[in-house]
């Protein structure tokens, strides 16, 4: 059974179709990268996994359960087990680093002593122990994203969603964040789903890739195959290759 | 020609002004914060979307803000009488003061909450936070510097409105300035009361700015 399964999901607004019958399967432990241009529908697709967006058609299954059938409180329970990190970090400005990391655990009602232990563990893992009492405005972008990662891991999730997590960071910081994520995946087996518009991110950390263009998945597969033998024009353009004349329209 | 200042009277007037402003500010905050929260969460696309309620609340707020304070005092005579048993005196004056200030403050609370980064709210939802948690642990703390600023502005407005409270026997420094200073040509009294009011406003503004600045963690130096 796939960990995450999106079956023929569509998202239609009044005149615009953001997603058109998209299907994605993610297995436990995978690092899936969803790549596409702005407006291709990546953000919407990602948010269907934790129910922040609902499809107008199609179904979303997490561990075989259709999440549309969940009660509001069960959906919240599910969300507490899915971490999310964002392009602009989205930390609470009124809380310290420590309090930001503690927040998801407070939401599910963990004991203070447990929270304290876990926050210290996470601070150490992301290398921010000496910043525990700092406020987000005192941190660099890379540090803020580390807090974001620590926060996403707080409740021991099985899945972490990454919304353009490195798009606001410089190349060196991007590399260190991606390295951290890769290490965490190896240590814990947590499944990561990335959305990005940068192929280099996919190349560095992802095991599988799906290419999204104008609401449709045009190519999908494991990274080694797709990179060595890209079929679709869009994939090729992301890889910096010129599309073949006439365009090879075979979709794998 | 000018008699020397009657300090006992000024002392009494100061006490009355402070009492009116303190009570009104407190209740304006008590009513205004939940009202401001409601104005946000009942709106379209929010988690307690009740469009008709949002429109009704908005209408009530707009109406109370539009009515001049003097007219509000008169309109609210029967209400004041019903709540307190009298429509005269310092405490009675707080009813129209609250009725004028609370809606004004509610709008400021609403604006403060709407200005919170949408991404932060989305992150809280992604963590599985309930609407109540979002209101208490995200909206209020993140908007607090702006809410305190709004309360400071409301308090200063209340000080100036309280000067009109003399019309219902509310007393206070404004009333003194009017009655003794303006109507009895005691300029010393008028200036003394006026200066005290200005000092009061300055103090409130200073305290409000200080607290708001301390609460605001968004622009700290590392």
Element layout with pairings:
The complex is a heterodimer of chains A (252) and B (222).
Chain A: E1 4-12, E2 17-26, E3 31-36, H1 42-49, E4 57-62, E5 65-66, H2 72-80, E6 82-86, H3 97-107, H4 112-126, H5 141-153, E7 159-163, H6 171-188, E8 191-196, H7 199-205, E9 208-213, E10 216-222, H8 223-228, H9 233-238
Parallel strand pairs in A: 3-8, 3-9, 6-7, 7-8
Antiparallel strand pairs in A: 1-2, 1-4, 4-5, 9-10
Chain B: H1 7-41, H2 51-66, H3 69-75, H4 77-84, H5 90-114, H6 118-126, H7 131-162, H8 173-183, H9 187-215
Explained architecture:
The complex is a heterodimer of chains A (252) and B (222). By secondary structure, chain A is α/β, with parallel strands linked by helices. Chain A has a domain at 82-156. In chain A, 37% of the residues lie in helices and 25% in strands. Chain A has nine helices and ten strands. In chain A, the strands form two sheets. Chain A has a six-stranded mixed β-sheet with strand order 6-7-8-3-9-10, with helices on both faces. A four-stranded antiparallel β-sheet of chain A has the order 2-1-4-5, with helices on one face. In chain A, a hairpin with a 4-residue loop joins strand 1 and strand 2. In chain A, helix 3 crosses helix 4 (112-126), helix 3 (97-107) packs parallel to helix 5 and helix 4 crosses helix 5. Chain A is globular, with a radius of gyration of 19 Å. Chain A starts with a strand and ends in a 14-residue tail after the last helix. Chain B has a single domain (7-215), classed as MetI-like (MetI-like fold, Orthogonal Bundle). The longest helix of chain B has 35 residues, at 7-41. The mean pLDDT of chain B is 89. Chain B contains nine helices and no strands. In chain B, helix 4 crosses helix 5 (90-114). Chain B has helices spanning 7-41, 51-66, 69-75, 77-84, 90-114, 118-126, 131-162, 173-183, 187-215. By secondary structure, chain B is mainly α. The chains are: A alpha/beta (252), B mainly alpha (222). Chains A and B meet through helix 2, strand 6 and helix 3 of A and helix 6 and helix 7 of B.
